[in-house]
């Protein structure tokens, strides 16, 4: 069991997470949640996988902490003008930059809207904030770093 694991209430289908392996004491590549079961099992998958999904217990599911490499790996582009990153999603733009009072937190901005600027630490939280604002899922693809 990973000490800072997620709970079933923390995740939704499509959220990007990582699996913790007790054998290697390492985290997996980023994978998205493809199924959640009441007994605590979670199915994970990744882009380009053409075989069976990974089945894992929720106690081994870990959030992906946001950092510059993770954002680039999910296709965000660096914007020197804002000192952060942005992602175009259809006709929308999502901006992400570090929170000045807590560098482990990231501020989200949806286009020009500065009235709703949630903060988050993890990719799945970013996905949830996007959904809360747009009512559309934020479909990300892991491209690697």
Describe the structure.
The protein is mainly beta and 145 residues long. It is 12% helix and 37% strand. It has two helices and eleven strands. It has helices at 68-73, 123-134, and strands at 16-21, 26-27, 31-36, 41-45, 54-57, 61-63, 77-79, 84-89, 92-99, 102-110, 119-120. The strands form two sheets. Strands 1, 2, 3, 4, 5 and 6 form a six-stranded antiparallel β-sheet that branches. The chain has a five-stranded antiparallel β-sheet with strand order 7-8-9-10-11. Strand 10 and strand 11 form a beta hairpin. It is globular, with a radius of gyration of 15 Å. The mean pLDDT is 92.
Nearest-integer average pLDDT: 92
Order of helices and strands: EEEEEEHEEEEEH
Largest sheet: 6 strands, antiparallel
Secondary structural class: mainly beta
Strand and helix layout:
Layout: E1 16-21, E2 26-27, E3 31-36, E4 41-45, E5 54-57, E6 61-63, H1 68-73, E7 77-79, E8 84-89, E9 92-99, E10 102-110, E11 119-120, H2 123-134
Antiparallel strand pairs: 1-2, 1-3, 1-6, 3-4, 4-5, 7-8, 8-9, 9-10, 10-11
Brief summary:
With 145 residues, the chain is mainly beta. Strands 1, 2, 3, 4, 5 and 6 form a 6-stranded antiparallel beta sheet that branches. The protein has a 5-stranded antiparallel beta sheet with strand order 7-8-9-10-11.
């Amino acid at each position: 069991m990973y000490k800072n694991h997620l709970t079933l209430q923390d995740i939704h289908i499509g959220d990007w997470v990582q699996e913790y392996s007790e054998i290697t004491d390492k985290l997996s590549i980023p994978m998205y949640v493809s199924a959640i079961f009441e007994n605590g099992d979670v199915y994970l998958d990744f882009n380009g996988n053409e075989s069976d999904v990974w089945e894992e217990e929720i106690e081994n599911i870990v959030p992906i902490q946001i950092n510059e490499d993770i954002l680039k790996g999910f296709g965000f582009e660096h914007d020197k003008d804002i000192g952060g990153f942005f992602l175009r999603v259809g006709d929308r733009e999502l901006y992400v930059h570090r929170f000045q009072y807590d560098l482990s937190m990231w501020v989200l901005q949806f286009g020009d809207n500065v009235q709703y600027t949630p903060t988050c630490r993890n990719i799945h939280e970013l996905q949830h904030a996007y959904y809360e604002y747009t009512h559309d899922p934020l479909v990300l693809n892991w491209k690697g770093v």
